[in-house]
Amino acid sequence: MKKTIKSAAVSLLALSVLAACGNGKNENAASPSSSQPASSAAATDKEPAKSVTLTHLTWRVPDVGKGYDLFKQKYESEHPNVKIEVNNIASDQYFNMLQTKLLSGDPPDIITTAMGATELIAQVENGFVADLTNEAFVQNILPGALDGAKIDGKVYGIPYDLVSLVVLYNKKIFADNGLSVPTNYEEFLQVCEALKAKNITPISYGIKDSYLTLFLPFQIAPTSVYAKNQKFDAGLLTGETQFNSDGWKRALGIPFELKEKGYFTENALGVGDQQSVEMFARGEAAMTINGTFGVSVARAANPDLELGMFPFPGNEPGEENWMALNVGQIMALSSSSKNLEEGKKYLAAWADKAYAQAWTDEAKSISTIEGVTNDFDPVQNDMTEYLAKTKTWQFANAGWPPGVSDAFMKTFQEVYAGKGTVDDILVAMDKAVEQAKSLQK
């Protein structure tokens, strides 16, 4: 689920509702009956459907329980001529391996990909994925999620699983100390100070895994940057915008302010993703900076945890706060697949409500498909409430040129270790933009 952040990280929600498409049946066709022996005979003489094997490449198998197994079993039982081969590659190797397969002319039929300049956008530009715009099943996808699979107005995949960056918090600790969920940054500082005064670590924070450096700034930037200029990313390549700006100084400055005030776990550079969530779940801190994908880790560490979540309030008092939201994966069809029509049928199943509900129940992820309920964990009700009233923006690096995310993560860790300032991070990011521009010439 974390891939959209881990490898370019893997945009977003405040979803409106589309009516589900029809079931494709021809209501005017005559029903078979005993008065139609010729039709029965014709069906008997019909050649059996051609056997097909569809290959589906992904990194998601470890994240979703038996999700793929259940989907495969259901699909193969309903399509006996089709065999599904799901091949998993570790998330830290996935996109390099996928790129190799695409360039070598040996792509899988179904490509699991992600938003961003180095993923879906590049794959579309190079002609690796098929245009699905006119397929009926895309109408089953919530429009706010479908935008994540659109390039220049055309649809190139099925976005699946919505993920949001959030603050996970211990409701009992908050209640025991008379604290309410903060609605702006000023209130958030007050909550942290009240906890610290009672010798409670406010925030379990870890950035040992470099992608974790993105989790907090990406929650602030929707408000400090993109609410003010939704064309910020497009302006990077034209020179109209740059990271060395007030909005990004705020988004990057807040994490270091919280560090200086002593609100974070000590030795954050030595604390990894799972460890930081588990520390929080055990009551070693009142909050942790993570995402909706961290819920299952927290539950496993402490099933009795009174868990809540809220979007990080990076806004000033009186200012509207925006959330960071993304699709966890996009399933696309290889344009060079030898099984294009069967591949489209397979993707149609992913967009089917019954299939999607079974997946959501098993994977415990927020669905992008119309009509699917997300009631697998009570804490998701918190997110549902926020999504109904809060504007959203994609994970910031979905619109960045190649190389910028790497510069961000590397320099952030260096500055956290005391080697430089926030300005150094911004300078490194702008240099990465210039390098990307030079490669395009």
UniProtKB/TrEMBL annotation:
SUPFAM superfamilies: Periplasmic binding protein-like II (SSF53850). It comes from the Bacteria. Residues 29-43 have a biased composition (Low complexity). Residues 1-19 form the signal peptide. The keyword tRNA processing does not apply. Keywords: Signal. Residues 26-49 are annotated as: Disordered. This is Carbohydrate ABC transporter substrate-binding protein (CUT1 family). PANTHER family: ARABINOSE-BINDING PROTEIN-RELATED.
